[in-house]
Every structure is written in structure tokens, then in C-alpha cells.
Amino acid sequence: MKHPKLLFGFFAVSGIVLLAWFLLNLYLSLIESLSVLPSLPSSELGVWSILLVGIVFLTVGMVGLGRQYFKNRRNLLTVLVVFLVPLLTFATVFFTSVLLAAPMFPVRDEITQVGIVNNNPLVLYLGVKAITSRGTRIDSVLILNSYGTKVAEYRIEEVVVVDEHGDQVTRFMPICTLSGGSSMTLTLRFNCNLPPGNYTVRLDSWGDNHGSSSFTIP
């Protein structure tokens, strides 16, 4: 082998690139953003294969490079690298998913337009766009004043439906649902009127952030 250092260096760098690519894709998928692997959007096997190939490449590269410099401890070095590289990689994956993504509420939508149709009672016209690759459900719309206090809320009442077993159950109906990347316009009629001032309209559902936008009542 004429250029072993170059070959093993190539393996090591390729492994690092693949692992970084996997971690980025994992993070974005956990916060429900678009995947950076468009050719494998629904293939978990394909995505996890990148992790395994990255581990193999990095392990081979580090073992090969290490054996070039530490000739008296080759066997010990090989055992340490083979053990530590997968361990540290899976630990990084775990902490990425638990510490970074889990506490965050994914932003699923954005409000593209706010229009005041009437203020007696208040009627708002909203343009809403889903900005993730997954579907979204909006359960309520909140109006907050300049101090962040809720002054109005719009939601669809609970309805009684018959389930597949013939039993009556109460379910909360969403205001709307959007597929990934789609847009929708909403006309919302509140049972109140607001005094002049600055306000924020916020789309809401449990555990998700659907965006907010400010508007002014003249």
C-alpha cells in the first residue's frame, strides 16, 4: 500500500461527514423540520444505515492512522478505537435527542397575513402556512394584549360523536388541519370587541408552536 495515511485519512473524514450528516438529520426530524436526506424521507433503514456506515468508516480510519504512529501499541489502540467510537457516537445521538430536541416545542406554522374585518364583534382574517414536512392541527387562537395577557380566545366547542364501538364520546374539534407545506385562510369571529391598542394573535395547540403575529386596533 503506497499511501496508507491518505487512504485511512479519507475513511476518517468520510466517517465524520456521514456522522455529522446523520446528527443534523436527526435533530431536524426531532423538531419536525424538513429532512436533509430528501432521497430517504420515509426510510428509517436508510437513515440509520448512514449512522452505521459512518461509524465503520471513522473506526477504520482512526485504527489505520493510529497504527501508523503507535506501532508498539497497535492491538491496544485497535481495541480502544473499536470500543470508544461506537460508544461515543451513540451517546452523542442520545444526548442530541434528549437534551436538545425534547424540551423544544416545534414551530409548525407561520401566520403570513392578519386582517381586521370588523371589531364589533371582532372578526379576524388570517393567512396560515405550514412550514414543516408533517401535518399540523390548530386547536385554538389566542389574542394577547401588549402585556401578554389573554383577552380573547377562539376555539371550536367539543362535540359528541359515536365511535367504532357505538359508544358516545366527547371530542374536541380542531379549528383546522394543514398538510405539510400547505396554506390556508381562516376567518375567525370572536364574541367580543377590543379597545384601540397593539395585540398579538397566536395559534395554539397542546405541545406545539404554530406561530404568532402582531396587529393593531386603531
Give me the count of strands.
11
Uncertain runs: 34-42
Mean pLDDT: 78
Helix content, binned percent: 25-40%
Specify Rg, calculated over alpha carbons: 26 Å
CATH class wording of the largest domain: Mainly Beta
Structural class: alpha+beta
TL;DR?
The chain has 218 residues and is α+β, with helices and mostly antiparallel strands. The protein is built from three helices and eleven strands; from the N terminus they run αααβββββββββββ.
List descriptors.
218 residues; alpha+beta; 2 domains; 4-stranded antiparallel sheet; 3-stranded antiparallel sheet
Describe this structure in words.
The chain is α+β, with helices and mostly antiparallel strands. It has 2 domains: 4-101, no CATH class; 109-217, Immunoglobulin-like (Sandwich), CATH 2.60.40. The protein has 3 helices and 11 strands, in the order αααβββββββββββ. The strands form 4 sheets. Strands 5-4-10-11 form a 4-stranded antiparallel sheet, with no helix packed on it. α1 runs parallel beside α3 (74-101).
